[in-house]
Design brief:
single chain; 356 residues; 20 helices; 60% helix
């Protein structure tokens, strides 16, 4: 019941305001109701003057149809910079059929981008967050966001990296800035920079050596998953990443009885014979026991099969696996024991039920 929910939330909002504040989460919830909460538009618009509510007002009004957009247009010249940023963001986020033809979305995006140069870090941060909320349409901001990866404010750097992830694949000319960011003191900034590189796919191949180097360094220990994910997405040449992937696999096998991350094994598998030096560690992966061991066994079997005849030392270990893997083991053995690997059908690894 949108009407009843709106009435209850409006009461909470008014009660909160009567005590000197507003509740951004209540405003956001009203926005989620959409045009059915249009009775709350006037009260929501009043909350634009409350610190920390500007984002919620802009987003909520953007979801309330033509009436919500009309309210945003009245707030475009608000005295508060943060309010203006989120009003412009709301105009961009509003459904196309809710916006008057006169509303220029690109103009609103440019208005937000201009605040990235503001001397106040809190204003720069608001602009960055708004661009992240907008996502791909904010692509014109990518270069300035990349420049902000060196901002003196940690949160601006952090959110700029996140915004680049949200906006989507960056231009490859931004790779140097993203590579610099993977050395940032803030872990999340490093992680988001890596994910931004991952979203670029093969366009980011020039970043692969640096990612591979970080993977085996102490500083990269907490970032192993996004690094491996990035390598999987980028698909670099074997020479640039396989040695580091094998080094990481060997270290994980030696240090953790639960075995390495299955994604690491899957990425190595994609390099086939070039990953032959990983065979001893992959055999160790087959010996891992426990409730979730199959999550590692399946990709390890697949990796050995793709390596082919150079994985012959693994034959005995493969043949001793549980019968539940028989189809997958057969697939691998056909490739490992082939006298002439070029005559073996390329067939894909059988689909496995990871929930078994």
């Amino acid at each position: 019941d949108a009407v009843g929910a709106t009435a209850r939330l409006l009461k909470i909002l008014r009660d909160t305001r009567s005590t000197g504040g507003s509740d951004a989460h209540v405003i956001n919830t009203l926005g989620l109701i959409g045009p059915g909460a249009s009775a709350a538009i006037a009260e929501i618009a009043k909350s634009i003057d409350e610190s920390s509510c500007e984002w919620a007002v802009g987003i909520a009004l953007s979801r309330m149809g033509p009436e919500g957009v009309a309210a945003l247009l009245k707030l475009r010249d608000h005295k508060n910079k943060t309010a203006r940023i989120w009003v412009h963001a709301g105009l961009v986020l509003a459904r196309r059929d809710s916006r008057p033809i006169a509303v220029d979305v690109n103009q609103s995006i440019e208005a937000i981008i201009a605040y990235l140069d503001d001397g106040d870090a809190s204003i720069r941060l608001s602009a960055v967050r708004a661009l992240a909320e907008i996502g791909p349409p904010a692509t014109p901001a990518a270069r300035k966001l990349a420049n902000l990866l060196k901002d003196k404010d940690r949160w601006v750097r952090h959110c700029s990296a996140w915004a680049l992830v949200q906006i989507g694949p960056a231009d490859k000319t931004l790779i140097p800035a993203l590579l610099d960011a993977i050395s940032d003191a803030d872990k999340d900034t490093r992680s988001y920079a890596i994910i931004a590189l991952a979203k670029m796919g093969p366009e980011a191949r020039s970043a692969a050596p640096a990612l591979a180097k970080l993977l085996v360094q102490k500083e990269g220990a907490e970032l192993a998953y996004p690094i491996i994910m990035a390598i999987q997405s980028i698909k670099p040449d074997a020479k640039d990443v396989v040695p580091s992937l094998i080094q990481k696999l060997n270290a994980d096998v030696a240090a953790n009885t639960r075995g390495p991350d299955p994604l690491l094994v899957e990425v190595l598998a994609s390099y086939g014979e070039s990953a032959a030096d990983a065979v001893p560690a992959l055999i160790q992966c087959l010996t891992v026991r426990g409730k979730n061991a199959s999550y590692l066994h399946y990709p390890a079997i697949g990796a050995l099969g793709r390596i082919g005849p150079k994985a012959k030392p693994a034959v005995s270990a493969l043949k001793t696996l549980s019968p539940m893997y028989s189809e997958y083991v057969h697939w691998a053995l056909v490739r490992i024991e082939a006298a002439n690997p070029t005559t073996v059908p390329a067939g894909d690894y059988p689909q496995q039920n990871w929930m078994e």
